[in-house]
Amino acid sequence: MRSGNESNRLTKRSSLPGSYPALLRELKQRIQQSQARASISVNRELVLLYWHIGQDILVRQGREHWGAKVIDRLAADLKEAFSKIKGFSPRNLKYMRAFAEAWPDEEFVQQAVAQIPWGHNVRILDYVKDPSHREWYIRATLEHGWSRDVLVHQIERGLHRRAGAVVTNFERTLPPPQSGDFFNVFNHPLLNLPNATTGLINKSSQPNAPRIIQNSASTC
């Protein structure tokens, strides 16, 4: 078997087909698009899981009058059962409860809310109190592919008051390339994949491919 250095020397000595650069660009773009689709799918499952956990907590608090101590115990037990998965702190469980309370319609959660990262949803819960305004920022984030920092900036400047009509275009299924960072399937708390795998994505060397970023799926 030839060594890596020997293979490199052979490649340099031989001429590559003229179509090789175009094929390489096409394969890189295809890989990045597949990563983006996988990341969106995993994110959706995570957000729906958090919504269902929040719903369960809401129901039991109403029926069995759960207090903060029960939430703390639940967080500890979940951490013990899933020690390598982040996101089950008492603080995040309380966010799940608030999340489920804010979005009681599961169909809307599936169609819109679960399409953006958990960190984005938490910022909307924290910064926006009016339900209609929350929905506006959910839809706008989907429309424009805002990063979390851009979302917070738009909320702080009250963009919903300037823009007027609710964003309704859901045609895009992936973040537009110019939208900045949105998802990263390789840094997802539900999968617990090593951070080293993010090296598979090199945004600076592939400027025309869909860009995927830190998902920030767990807040703590």
Uncertain runs are: 165-180, 193-216
What is the count of structural domains?
A: 1
Strand percent estimate: under 5%
Which of globular, elongated, flat, extended, rod-shaped describes the shape? globular
**How many runs of DSSP E, i.e. beta strands?**
0
Instruction: Calculate the mean pLDDT score and round it.
Output: 78
Summarize the amount of helix as a percent range: 55-70%
Judged by helices, strands and strand pairing, the structural class is mainly alpha
Number of helices: 9
Cα gyration radius (Å): 21 Å
How would a crystallographer describe the biggest sheet?
none
* Separation of the first and last Cα atoms: 48 Å
> Which H/E pattern describes the elements?
HHHHHHHHH
Q: How would you describe this structure to a colleague?
A:
Helix 2 (20-64) packs across helix 4 (90-102) and helix 6 runs parallel beside helix 8. It is globular, with a radius of gyration of 21 Å. The protein has 220 residues and is an all-alpha fold. The protein has helices at 4-13, 20-64, 68-81, 90-102, 106-111, 118-127, 131-144, 148-156, 159-163. The chain has one domain (32-200).
